[in-house]
Design a protein that fits this description.
CATH topology of the largest domain: TIM Barrel
Helix content: 25-40%
Structural class: alpha/beta
Cofactor: [4Fe-4S] cluster
Largest sheet: 10 strands, mixed
Bound molecules: S-adenosyl-L-homocysteine, iron/sulfur cluster
Shape: elongated
Main location: cytoplasm
CATH architecture of the largest domain: Alpha-Beta Barrel
Number of strands: 14
Family: Belongs to the radical SAM superfamily. RlmN family.
Radius of gyration: 23 Å
Order of helices and strands: EHHHEEEEEEHEHEHEHEHHEHEHEH
Organism: Pseudomonas helleri
Number of domains: 2
Subcellular location: Cytoplasm
Oligomer: single chain
Number of helices: 12
């Protein structure tokens, strides 16, 4: 567990909150914009580097505030350009963040919770159970860390991160307030300036919170469908028992129409061999979605140990895609990226916490060895 410092962490403050903070310490509100640019555009966490802020104010800030992202446990870069970070959050758990470059697009897949309570049967995060909600600083901190890794350029120039998807670990709608605040920071010009069309929240279907969403933000929405009927969906995505398909699709349609412009829902469908990949399932899906303008993203199952599921063959995946396409749907198949670093977005590996514990044990062991070496060297000195 990381000790809390008692200082205000400015990383997680939205613009109105930052202005309130400067107000509360008797400073001018325009300081909010200056400091936010240092933090989010330039990746600065040291107040002394904020050169357009007076020395007196910098000293004041050092005493009462901090800019603290989650601790980076590891950073891996795949041969295909995919990057993966494991970060440790305040609760002591680790979560993953993945960056996927694709042509002119760079998509960052961000986690919202450590673990997840919803226990979808094919999801490694679900197998961990729920551990903690990430704070605003921990959610936006993942963007901050990734952005810094491309060199500290202003976020609006040559930005490497063009899209953010809340498809890492956790159910974003069950950490509502923190995720909303972090998404505002992603879109704010004083934050990362990403267009609202390019910030996507993915949900397994927490209906009351989908209904609440449009009152707070207008980001893109992805629905994790995974089955075309209630019976099967309740087995795969247990929250379906509480909020069945009819209710769920209506809520998604309402949200999309509240956006007031032509934007369509993304429907995600993880293909599980022999479970939801039959011709019948495609036929049912065509019927189910006929009144819901959407594009469909098929995700071939990413296996993990003891999951009990398999990825369908490429032929089966293609057949499923073609059936939907023939019915007029726009259907993409997600390709697996970053395989050499275990980075498939949306199936972030559940064993991360075990692995992290193992690697911290290794580090501890190494430090112990180094200390022993030092002690032996010192003892060997004349
Ligand atoms: N909790 C949210 C967002 C995180 S999961 C949600 O469920 O939508 C992001 C996506 O990855 C979801 O569509 C999820 O169902 C899918 N997913 C989870 N485990 C997977 C696996 N092993 N293989 C393929 N897709 C998976
Ligand atoms: Fe949670 Fe999403 Fe995994 Fe379901 S698929 S257990 S909602 S993270």
């Amino acid at each position: 567990m990381i000790a809390t410092t008692g200082k205000t962490n400015l990383l997680g403050l939205t613009q109105p909150e930052m202005e309130k903070f400067f107000d509360s310490i008797g400073e001018k509100r325009f300081r909010a914009g200056q400091v936010m640019k240092w933090i989010h555009h330039f990746g600065v966490d040291d107040f002394d580097a904020m050169t357009n802020v007076s020395k007196a104010l910098r000293d004041k800030l050092k005493a009462i505030a901090e800019v603290r992202g989650p601790e980076v446990v590891s950073e891996d870069i795949s041969s295909d350009g995919t990057r993966k970070w494991v970060v440790r959050v305040e609760s002591g758990s680790c979560v993953e963040t993945v960056y996927i470059p694709q042509g002119k697009r760079g998509t960052l897949c961000v986690s919202s919770q450590a673990g997840c309570a919803l226990d979808c049967s094919f999801c490694s995060t679900g197998k961990q159970g729920f551990n903690s909600n990430l704070t605003v600083a921990e959610v936006i901190g993942q963007v901050w860390i990734a952005n810094k890794s491309f060199g500290s350029v202003p976020a609006t120039i040559d930005r490497a991160i063009t899209n953010v998807v809340m498809m890492g670990m956790g159910e974003p709608l069950l950490n509502f307030d923190n995720v909303i605040a972090a998404m505002h920071l992603m879109m704010d010009d004083l934050g990362y300036g990403i267009s609202k069309r390019r910030v996507t929240l993915s949900t397994s279907g927490v209906v009351p919170m989908i209904d609440e969403l449009s009152k707070h933000i207008d980001v893109s929405l992805a629905l994790s469908l995974h089955a075309p009927n209630d019976e099967l969906r309740s087995q795969l995505v247990p929250i379906n028992k509480k909020y069945p398909l009819k209710m769920l699709l209506e809520s998604c349609r309402n949200y999309m129409s509240s956006l007031g412009e032509k934007r369509v829902l993304t429907v995600e469908y993880t293909l599980l061999k022999g479970v939801n990949d039959h011709v019948d399932h495609a036929v049912q899906m065509i019927e189910l979605l006929k009144d819901t303008p959407c594009k469909i993203n098929l995700i071939p199952f990413n296996p993990f140990p003891h999951s009990g599921y398999e990825r369908p063959s490429n032929n089966a995946i293609r057949r499923f895609q073609e059936l939907l396409q023939q019915a007029g749907y726009n259907v993409t198949v997600r390709t697996t990226r970053g395989e050499d670093i275990d980075a498939a977005c949306g199936q972030l590996v559940g064993q991360v916490n075990d692995r992290t514990r193992r690697s911290s044990r290794l580090i501890a062991a190494r430090e112990l060895n180094a200390e022993t070496d030092l002690a032996q060297n010192a003892a060997a000195q004349p």
